[in-house]
Design goal:
The protein contains eleven helices and eight strands. It has 269 residues and is of the alpha/beta class. The chain is elongated. It has an eight-stranded mixed beta sheet, with helices on both faces. Helices cover 55% and strands 13% of the residues. Strand 5, helix 5 and strand 6 form a beta-alpha-beta unit.
Length: 269
């Protein structure tokens, strides 16, 4: 089976490298296409047996194609691929904007949607999957098996996608921002605490908290209850956060949904 990757940017490059590094796909069976030749050459230095190709060549030679381009570039890339696409192929898009039904109406092959996370860089974290109506049970078995090498695949519906994407794909950045702002405010509150020390304290605490969840099977709710004891300073902190954080998250989810809606309107979807 030949596998193709079109678009070797942040997400496409991460997926290709992850699968190749884990031996999910043999390098000689992988075909890569990208607008920037430098990124192709960088990846081929690490995996010399991969094939560097055009969009059309990937479509002509591959049974499975990961389409990792921006929503606005999808139409032109598909136009390149059109002469070679056929019903027996599986096409997996990493853009959340284009509905699967619209993609199925555009191409003859079976289609799925994959939303990866930066955490797949270390072979961890959630990879969200959505399936089109033509996807087979064998497609599901293969795709979920491949993704299990670099993370944890979870199947959702498109109606669940927007908030789920914010939690998983956007989550690392959103959580990092919260922790970074927490450290920065601690420094502003007490200049004797250096920025480097504040960041170290936050990072080590985050790492240990994750271990509590994974190794001691503690839930988020249990950690809050154990730390924020009645009458204590942390309980007071939780009370203050509860006044403002839910509204901030409401705004975040509403803004992301509105941005996706506008992106679809611009694409005529």
């Amino acid at each position: 089976m030949n596998t193709g990757f079109i678009g070797i940017g942040s997400m496409g490059g991460m997926l290709a490298r992850g699968f190749l590094r884990e031996g999910t796909f043999a390098a000689e069976n992988v075909w890569l296409a990208n607008r920037s030749q430098k990124r192709l050459q960088d990846l081929s230095r690490d995996f010399p047996a991969v094939h560097l190709a055009s969009n059309r060549q990937v479509a002509a030679h591959c049974d499975v194609i990961f389409l990792c381009v921006k929503a606005g570039d999808t139409s032109s890339v598909l136009a390149d691929m059109d002469p070679e696409l056929y019903p027996g192929q599986l096409l997996i898009t990493t853009t959340s904007v284009i509905p699967l039904k619209a993609l199925e109406g555009r191409v003859p092959c079976r289609v799925a949607k994959l939303i990866p996370s930066i955490t797949q860089e270390i072979g961890a974290g959630i990879a969200l999957l959505m399936y089109g109506s033509r996807v087979t049970a064998e497609d599901r078995r293969l795709l979920e098996g491949w993704l299990s090498h670099i993370g944890r695949p979870i199947v959702i519906t498109e109606s669940q996608a927007r908030p789920a994407i914010s939690l998983c794909s956007g989550g690392p950045a959103l959580l990092s921002y919260l922790l970074q702002s927490m450290a920065e405010e601690a420094v502003r509150n007490n200049p004797e605490l250096s920025p480097d020390l504040a960041q170290t304290l936050v990072q080590e605490t985050l790492s240990a908290t994750v271990r509590l969840m994974s190794e001691a099977n503690m839930t988020l709710e249990e950690i809050i209850r154990r730390v924020a004891t009645p009458g204590g300073m942390t309980e007071q902190g939780i009370e203050m956060l509860s006044r403002y954080v839910p509204q901030a998250w409401q705004a975040v989810f509403a803004a992301s949904a509105e941005k996706e809606k506008k992106a679809r309107e611009l694409l005529g979807l």
